[in-house]
From TrEMBL, chain A:
Keywords of the record: ATP-binding, Cell membrane, Membrane, Nucleotide-binding, Transport
GO biological process: peptide transport
The name this protein goes by in its record: ABC transporter ATP-binding protein
Domain of life: Bacteria
PROSITE patterns associated with the record: ABC_TRANSPORTER_1 (PS00211), ABC_TRANSPORTER_2 (PS50893)
GO molecular function, one term: ATP hydrolysis activity
CDD domains cross-referenced by the UniProt entry: ABC_NikE_OppD_transporters
Organism, as annotated: Streptomyces sporangiiformans
């Protein structure tokens, strides 16, 4: 999705006049929509997403490629609007409340000042996300001095301090190295140091370990966990790996076709999932912590095109339970999120009882 | 002992310190020197050996076909064309550093160092000709380069940022025109309009020593004409690389830090986008310094290009040889400068 | 890669035994090697990529991508190869399919030495050994229809399958779960998972005996991964294929493999049956690797003390560490590990390991001096647990110290005390 946002440019905010009061949660996203006009039609990357996140908590957003998870994170950061040129602008609507400020209708320069200070981001591939021509130190110093009126020396001391904090050996020397002189894991540490240099309240990590080896991944996940404890910030971790989510998240949001199809506390989503797609994800994954499964239970078919999302439930064409009779609904109606437990929502037409039965009787035993 | 082993995993890798840069520079300089020697050898072979294989006596080519046998024989002796090729090359090399004396019978011609050869057609050494004409060409190339960099890069960056808009489209149409219209067309057109038509600018070249104003006025049209062609090319390449760079992840990172957009573009994007432009600049400047034949001819500028054009029509081999060497030297030096700048801009190059 | 190799093969004049062998159905397949016997045998295999520098392109060193490995693949089994990036697993895959020329060592296929076979000698081999690649986007020619792509091996080998190429290609399409009517479509019309199926169909066209799959699912989404994994599974059952599956994902490798080789810096450090390897890994690296995999179970988060967190990065394969290559990151490293390379030996039936101090087995060099300072740096446990845990850890490490080197107890005890806020990994 990110390449779409790159090529088709960006954003025209359509401020939505809303009567609903400012939220009390630290971060609240209401009915976020990010659409990109293309030659083939309107790509609805994110199509009505809502969630809340408190400080000190971690939200894991899980989904496959094209589910809209990265577009969501860039939307929160305001990066669809910032510095996008050309004719095709992303259409963004909805509300994003960060600490009492609505970002989509706010002055863009105000949002820019929040970026890097109040909300920061870690990207998937630290090699391409760091500028190859500047030293690690220069890049961290820059990030610090945008938001703090200090001289270069002070900022550099701060950079060394941050590098030390994220576990880079000999930080006073490494600070003058260029990104290509770092290993993959060290680069991601440096990236984390850079994003945390201003003590942001919200940290968004977009696939932070996908490009890394498994032993390095463990180090980075550990670091993110420690740092969150230390800084008490809110963290959104975006990934396709259920293992990573399970390691870090308090809450989990599962996305499919630009929408949230299930959201709830991590335990609930893993132990009492109430959406067939979540079942599919759990069943597709070979697991090291269980005895050898005979066979994986894949989801048939492929993810939907975001231009022609099925009119009813986006998962309907791939759903193994599409034929289960549903009460009073037609296939063309899109299921809304409904509460299936405390703080636990899922968007499915099947009755709760039916889903509970299928999960406990048919799915869970096979996992 | 353990410390020694742990180095492989922990310690900083070879940092690109000043020593690494210096080593890189020395390597590049050495390579440039070797290249120059090779070029001299190749050029020498082309001018002195190939005609012989083709059954043409080089001596004839030096004097011209109508010359009488006695004159040809004199030239052969003077230039040492009867000697084996390596002796000739050696003589030429020696001439570059200590000068050379051409002697045949009682006729002795001195050619002071650096001796790039002697034109028997015009009865003069080559080097003074080159030094006379070189500044004109250099001024033309450098002046035009400043113009085209300024306008070409600016137009390219703006087009990239306003991709798909009317501005972008019109700028690219103009650029396409600039690339495809030949210099003698745009040159003559501008002469017709601004010099003969409106009478704003003088079409005459005035040497700098005579009057700065006259010189400057005379150079404006050549500069603009030459710059128009190159600005168009630079606008196109700048636009393309800018578009590519603006899509890079590190640009997104720069924005995520909260940088102002002008800083994102000016500092982060431009530095990367300038690398291919720099490479082009090195090659173009090198080539132009060797003689902007079309521009010089169109505007009657007494530069190297005009000299070489005349030498070709006169079949004045020593002049052609001298200009070829000067051109190669210019290209090599320009490339060396570009390589050094490259290493300054892109830290990854230093270790390569 | 494979296309290049096959293209090379085209330039060779048509081979005489071009009799139709291709279209045999799975059931009627005759195998030259009975299941369980050795199909592929590799001894001392090496691949060094030279690094050249300077004007004269002098060789200043070499990337020792694969640095002396021995293993065999038995007919009908799946050998999984795991390791982190740069461990040489992909190079190994290209060596055994002879897409790369080995620097040293021997590759035997069905008892025949194929190490130095030329292009023409390899040609019949190419039919028996096929490769599946990671990236289903770049390994298919975008200008060819999938019919052409899957049918290409027949043309290259000069084989005319029963009922014609088209019919056979359509059969292959349905075997891998694609619609046979899509014969005339182009690769871009398919999704990632479908493209990987096309790659598999192409590999299966000539009824190979051995299929080497390099990261066959790592470019695919989770839900699609499972489809392809299951497909590979089914095909093996139906066609009696032998697989070498190279992957970095330990869970995938466990799911698909019968035996697993763990590679580190160009060496096999452990080679064992799946069950033994996952239940009782012997090499410390295997153990660390497995413990590093994030477990998709939020309740396990509290049990983090099981995790061994390796420090630092994999050293460069240009100058691998002396002795055991893992000793720079190993918490059990001793003197001997820095000096002497441990051989790959069978410590338990079906479990080979190259380690002086293996887990779950008898120590191979029990008298050796513990390098505690190194161990302290090399590893730390994630959980900064309760006081009780801490104390237990401390006690255990003290016990370990007393066991290993009595004469140096005093020194090491102080080291343990100093590091008590970061308890050592204490493997009892």
């Amino acid at each position: 999705m990110t390449d779409l946002s790159k090529s088709s440019g960006a954003a025209m905010t359509e401020p939505v006049v809303s009567d609903s009061p400012a939220p009390t949660a630290f971060l609240e996203v209401r009915d976020l929509k990010v659409h990109f006009p293309t030659d083939d039609g309107l790509v609805k990357s994110v199509d009505g997403l809502s969630f809340t996140l408190e400080k000190g908590k971690t939200l894991g957003i899980v989904g496959e490629s094209g589910s809209g998870k990265s577009v969501t994170s860039l939307g929160i950061m305001g990066l669809h609007t910032a510095g996008q040129y050309g004719k095709r602008k992303a259409r963004i609507s909805g509300e994003i409340w960060l600490d009492g400020t609505e970002l989509l209708s706010a002055d863009p320069d105000h949002v820019r000042k929040l970026r890097g200070r109040e909300m920061a981001m870690i990207f998937q591939d630290p090699l391409s996300a760091l500028h190859p021509y500047y030293t690690i130190g220069q890049q961290i110093v820059e990030a610090y001095r945008i938001h703090h009126d200090v001289d270069k020396k002070t900022a550099k001391r701060r950079a060394v301090e941050m590098l030390d904090r994220v576990g880079i050996p000999q930080p006073d020397k490494r600070v003058d190295n260029y990104p290509h002189e770092f290993s993959g894991g060290m680069r991601q540490r440096a990236m984390i140091a850079m994003s945390l240099v201003n003590n942001p309240e919200l940290l968004i990590a977009d696939e932070p370990t996908t490009a890394l080896d498994v032993t390095v991944q463990a180090q980075i996940l550990d670091l993110i966990r420690d740092l969150q404890k230390e800084f008490g910030s809110a963290v959104i971790i975006i990934t396709h790996d259920l293992g990573v989510v399970a390691e870090l998240s308090d809450d989990i949001l599962v996305m499919y076709g630009g929408r949230c199809i299930e959201r709830g506390p991590a335990e609930k989503v893993f132990y009492e999932p109430r959406h067939p797609y979540t079942w599919g994800l759990l069943g597709s994954m070979p697991r090291l912590d269980r005895d050898q499964q005979e066979r994986l239970i894949p989801v048939k078919g492929s993810p939907p095109s975001l231009i022609n999302i099925p009119s009813g439930c986006a998962f309907n064409p791939r759903c193994p339970y599409a034929d289960v009779p549903k009460d009073n609904v037609t296939r063309t109606v899109r299921p809304e999120l409904s509460e299936v437990g405390s703080q636990h929502w899922a968007a499915c037409h099947m009755t709760q009882e039916e889903r509970e039965r299928i999960w406990t009787e048919e799915i869970a035993p096979k996992l | 002992m353990i410390v020694g082993h742990r180095k492989t995993s922990g310690g900083p890798r070879s940092a690109a310190g000043p020593r690494a840069v210096l080593a890189y520079l020395i390597r590049r300089l050495f390579a440039a020197a070797v290249m120059l020697v090779v070029i001299i050898l190749v050029v020498f072979c082309i001018f002195f050996l190939v005609p012989r294989w083709a059954g043409v006596d080089p001596a004839t080519m030096f004097v011209g076909k109508q010359a009488d046998p006695g004159a040809i024989e004199a030239v052969r002796q003077k230039l040492g064309l009867g000697e084996p090729i390596f002796v000739q090359v050696w003589e030429f090399f020696k001439g570059l550093f200590v000068g050379r004396t051409y002697a045949a019978g009682g006729d002795v011609t001195n050619c002071a160092a650096p001796c790039f050869g002697y034109s028997f057609r015009n009865e003069q050494a080559i080097w003074p000709v080159l030094t006379d004409r070189f500044p004109v060409t250099l001024a033309l190339a450098l002046g035009a380069a400043v113009l085209w960099l300024l306008f070409g890069v600016a137009a390219g960056v703006l087009s990239a940022l306003k991709r798909g808009t009317l501005w972008d489209r019109s700028a690219m149409v103009v650029a396409l025109a600039g690339v495809s219209l030949p210099i003698y067309f745009t040159g003559l057109l501008s002469l017709a309009i601004f010099s003969y038509g409106l009478g704003w600018l003088d079409a005459q070249y005035v040497p700098l020593e005579e009057s700065f104003g006259g010189w400057f006025g005379g150079m404006i049209l050549p500069w603009v004409t030459l710059a128009f062609l190159y600005a168009a090319m630079y606008a196109r390449i700048t636009r393309a690389t800018m578009l590519e760079v603006m899509g890079e992840d590190y640009i997104r990172t720069a924005r995520a830090k909260g940088l102002r957009e002008p800083v994102v573009i000016g500092k982060h994007a431009m530095r990367s986008a300038m690398t291919p432009v720099l490479t082009m600049l090195g090659m173009d400047l090198g080539a132009l310094i060797g003689g902007a034949i079309l521009t010089e001819t169109t505007f009657s500028l007494p530069g190297l290009g005009q000299a070489v054009l005349k030498a070709i029509s006169d079949k004045d081999l020593p002049v052609i040889l001298g200009v070829t060497l000067i051109t190669s030297l210019a290209v090599i030096i320009a490339n060396l400068v570009v390589d050094i700048l490259y290493a300054v801009i892109d830290p990854r190059v230093r270790l390569a | 890669m494979s296309e290049n190799a096959e293209d090379n093969a085209v330039s060779i004049p048509a081979q005489s035994d071009g009799a139709a062998k291709g279209a045999a159905k799975g059931a009627t397949l005759t195998k030259d090697v009975a299941p369980g016997e050795t199909l592929l045998k590799v001894t001392g295999l090496q691949k060094h990529f030279p690094i050249r520098k300077g004007l004269l392109q002098r060789q200043v060193g070499a990337v020792r991508a694969v640095d002396g490995i021995d293993f065999e693949v038995r007919a009908g089994e799946t050998l999984g190869v795991v390791g982190e990036s740069g461990c040489g697993k992909s190079t190994m895959g290209r060596l055994i399919t002879r897409l790369l020329e080995p620097t040293a060592g021997k590759v035997e296929f069905e008892g025949r030495d194929i190490t130095h076979l030329g292009v023409s000698g390899m040609r019949p081999m190419r039919r028996d050994v096929q490769m599946i690649f990671q990236d289903p986007y770049s390994s298919l020619n975008p200008r060819h229809t999938i019919g052409t792509i899957i049918g290409a091996p027949f043309k290259l080998q000069g084989v005319e399958p029963e009922g014609g190429v088209k019919k056979e290609v359509q059969r292959l399409l349905s075997v891998v779960g694609l619609n046979p009517e899509h014969y005339n479509r182009y690769p871009h019309e398919f999704s990632g998972g479908q493209r990987q199926r096309i790659g598999i169909a192409r590999a299966l066209a000539l009824n190979p005996k051995l299929v080497v799959a390099d990261e066959p699912v790592s470019a695919l989404d989770v839900s699609i991964q499972a489809q392809v994994v299951n497909l590979l599974d089914d095909l093996q059952q139906e066609l009696g294929l032998t697989y070498v599956i190279i992957a970095h994902d330990l869970s995938v490798v466990r799911h698909v493999s019968d035996r697993i080789a763990v590679m580190y810096l160009g060496k096999i450090v452990e080679l064992a049956d799946r069950e033994s390897l996952y239940k009782a890994p012997m090499h410390p690296y295997t153990k660390a690797l497995m413990s590093a995999v994030p477990i998709p179970d939020p309740r396990r988060r509290s049990a983090k003390s099981e995790r061994i967190l390796l420090k630092g990065d994999v050293p460069s394969p240009i100058a691998p560490p002396s002795g055991c290559r893992f000793h720079t990151r190993c918490w059990k490293a001793t003197e001997i590990c820095t000096k002497q390379e441990p051989p790959l030996i069978e410590l338990k039936p079906g479990q080979q390991v190259a380690c002086h101090h293996p887990e779950n087995a008898e120590d191979q060099a029990p008298q050796d001096t513990v390098l505690l300072s190194a161990a302290k740096e090399a590893v730390e446990l994630v959980a900064v647990g309760t006081a009780a845990e801490l104390a237990a850890a401390e006690k255990a490490s003290e016990a370990a110290v007393e066991e290993t080197a009595v004469e140096e107890t005093a020194v090491e005890k102080s080291a343990v005390e100093k590091s008590s806020d970061r308890p050592e990994s204490t493997d009892k």
